[in-house]
C-alpha cells in the first residue's frame, strides 16, 4: 500500500524534473578589436538534450564575421528512456491504486491480479534501475558538453591567444541532479514493493491459507477474499509448510504486525 501513496508522486518528480528542464550558459568572446567582441553569448538547451541541434553565433574576431557553432552530442535516448519509464510507472501505479481500492474482488480473482502486479513490479524495478543509471551517465555527459570551458574550445576565435574567451555562468544542475536521485529512489521504492506484492500472490505461504493466519490480514486491509491459489502451489510449498506451522503458531503476533506493514507504511 505504500506504493499507493508514494509511487505516483515519486514518478511525477522524476519525469517533471527531467522533462521540464531547460538550462542556459553564457560565454564571452573578447576580441583584440573590441568592436567585434560579444561579451554575452547565450546558449539555451532543454530536454531532450539533442545538443548537436543547439546552435549559437559567435564572432570570429575577423571583421564583423560570425560563425555558427553547435554543441556536441545527442543525449536524447537516455533522457527520453528515463522520462518514458517514469511516465509509464506513474500511469501503472495510478491504475494499480484504482484497481486495488475499487476492484479488490476482481484483483484477487484466480490470483491473477497479484500475479500480474508482481511481474509488472519486478519489470518496473529493473527498468527504474536501468533507466536511472543510463540517465545518470547521460547527465554527466551533458554536463561536460555544456561546460562553458568546453564550449569555448569550439570557437575558432578562442584559439588565437590575443582574443580572450571566458564563461559568465554555466547551467544550474540541481533540477537534473534531483531527477537522478528520484530515479534511484523510485527503484528502491519499487524493488522494496516486490516483497509486498509477492506476499499478495500468496506463493510464500504454500498451503498455509487453511490456517487462521489469514484472519489478521483481513483486518489489516479490507480484503474481501484473501483466498490464495493453494491448489497449484500446494506441492511446491509443501516443503515450507512444515516450518511455516512452527512459525505461525509461535509468531502469530509478529505475523499480524508484518502483514499490516504495507498498509501503514
Ligand atoms: C551576442 O550574441 C547574442 C546571442 O547569444 C546576440 O543576441 C547578440 O546580439 C550578440 N551581440 C552582439 C553585439 O553581436
Ligand atoms: C576593428 O574593426 C572595425 C570594424 O570591423 C574596423 O573598421 C577597424 O579597422 C578594426 N581595427 C583593427 C585595429 O583591426
From TrEMBL:
Region Disordered, annotated ranges: 214-265
Query: What's any one GO cellular component for it?
Result: synaptic vesicle membrane
Span of domain MARVEL: 1-202
Q: Does the keyword Transmembrane helix apply?
A: yes
User: InterPro entries in the record, alphabetically?
Assistant: Marvel, Synaptophysin/porin
**Keywords assigned by UniProt?**
Glycoprotein, Membrane, Signal, Transmembrane, Transmembrane helix
Q: Which domain of life is it from?
A: Eukaryota
Instruction: Give compartment(s).
Output: Membrane
Give start-end positions of Polar residues composition bias. Answer: 249-265
Q: What is this protein called?
A: MARVEL domain-containing protein
Record gene name: SYNPR
Amino acid at each position: 500500500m505504500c506504493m499507493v501513496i508514494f509511487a505516483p508522486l515519486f514518478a511525477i518528480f522524476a519525469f517533471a524534473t527531467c522533462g521540464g528542464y531547460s538550462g542556459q550558459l553564457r560565454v564571452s568572446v573578447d576580441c583584440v578589436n573590441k568592436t567585434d567582441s560579444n561579451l554575452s553569448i547565450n546558449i539555451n538547451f532543454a530536454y531532450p538534450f539533442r545538443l548537436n541541434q543547439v546552435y549559437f553565433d559567435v564572432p570570429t574576431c575577423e571583421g564583423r564575421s560570425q560563425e555558427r557553432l553547435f554543441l556536441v552530442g545527442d543525449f536524447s535516448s537516455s533522457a527520453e528512456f528515463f522520462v518514458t519509464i517514469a511516465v509509464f510507472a506513474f500511469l501503472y501505479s495510478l491504475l494499480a491504486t484504482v484497481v486495488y481500492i475499487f476492484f479488490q474482488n476482481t484483483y484477487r480473482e484466480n490470483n491473477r491480479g497479484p500475479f500480474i502486479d508482481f511481474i509488472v513490479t519486478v519489470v518496473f524495478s529493473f527498468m527504474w534501475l536501468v533507466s536511472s543509471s543510463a540517465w545518470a551517465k547521460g547527465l554527466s555527459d551533458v554536463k561536460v558538453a555544456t561546460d562553458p570551458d568546453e564550449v569555448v574550445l569550439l570557437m575558432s576565435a578562442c584559439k588565437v591567444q590575443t582574443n580572450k574567451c571566458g564563461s559568465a555562468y554555466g547551467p544550474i544542475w540541481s533540477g537534473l541532479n534531483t531527477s537522478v536521485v528520484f530515479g534511484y529512489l523510485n527503484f528502491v521504492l519499487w524493488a522494496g514493493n516486490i516483497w509486498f506484492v509477492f506476499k499478495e500472490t500468496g506463493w510464500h505461504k504454500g498451503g498455509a491459507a487453511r490456517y487462521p493466519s489469514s484472519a489478521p490480514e483481513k483486518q489489516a486491509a479490507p480484503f474481501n477474499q484473501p483466498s490464495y491459489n493453494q491448489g497449484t502451489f500446494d506441492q511446491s510449498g509443501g516443503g515450507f509448510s512444515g516450518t511455516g506451522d512452527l512459525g505461525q503458531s509461535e509468531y502469530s503476533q509478529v505475523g499480524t504486525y508484518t502483514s499490516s506493514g504495507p498498509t501503514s507504511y
